[in-house]
Fold this sequence. Notes:
Blueprint: H1 8-39, H2 55-84, E1 91-98, E2 101-105, E3 111-112, E4 115-118, E5 123-129, E6 134-138, E7 143-147, E8 153-157, E9 163-169, E10 182-187, H3 189-198, H4 205-211, E11 237-242, E12 245-250, H5 253-261, E13 267-268, H6 284-296
Parallel strand pairs: 1-5, 4-10
Antiparallel strand pairs: 1-2, 2-3, 5-8, 6-7, 6-9, 9-10, 11-12, 11-13
Helix pairs in contact: 1-2
The chain binds dinuclear copper ion (CUA).
Amino acid sequence: MSGASSYSGLVDQTFWLILGSSVIMLLGITAVLIYFVVKYRRSTNPNPAQIEGSKRLEILWTVLPTILVMVMFYYGWAGFKVMRDIPDDAMEVIVNARMWSWSFEYPNGVQSAELYVPTGEPVSLKLRSSDVIHSFFVPDFRLKEDCMPGRENHAWFETTRDGEFTIFCAEYCGEKHSQMLSKVVSVPPVEFADWLEDNTGPISPEKLLSIKGCVACHTADGTRLIGPSYKGMYGRKELVKTGEEVREIVVDEEYIRRSILDPMADIVEGYAGVMPPMEGQITDEEIDVLIEYFKTLK
Ligand code: CUA
């Protein structure tokens, strides 16, 4: 699999250097081991001899590994530096990770569930998580960086060709960790500008649910997943657990708003409270759009 980012060659070079020298060492050491086992076997050498040190050998096996390790360090550092130094002209995209989806936010406010980027232009990523530790991993770019709650991390990349590249989560984050997938879609800059233009403006509630990651746990057709379905939810009476106490509530605008921003406040009976708080991740206007949509799901 050949790399698709400007620095993937550097990473591959370091990888092959370390793998190659490890294999050579392994073969060399194994060969010497076998040679000694045969040469000094008991039948031809019944009496063990005491062997005193050898200065030449001592120097050799100190200097050679030091050089080797320093060469590995040099390539590792050179590659690492490139990956950590974000070019000034990079387009900034916010990456939101949560159980169990990704979403992306562009400087002009456009949001998407897939990361569209212009080919051959640097993209800077601000990596965030709203619940647990996730890891943004794009094997084609040789890019892997953690998303941590309460702390922003950063990374960048520049694609070298058009195409679609899978985004994985590389940090075990719960039940649907393996399904926490998305993709980078790299298109020519002109096409990217069009895409950005087309996606400016109001978002449909369905798209909003997908971007905010709601669809990983909730459905609109009555199917029960990790969380309750939206279907028929509005106006229904529901038993919820508030702290230790179970009480009956009516699902109204206020309840929905609170359940989005602070999901652990009231947990619907029969469900485990695992939803991350959306406070700071969703605007009041977006919640209004969703509430209006929920009202239509009779
Ligand atoms: Cu997110 Cu694993």
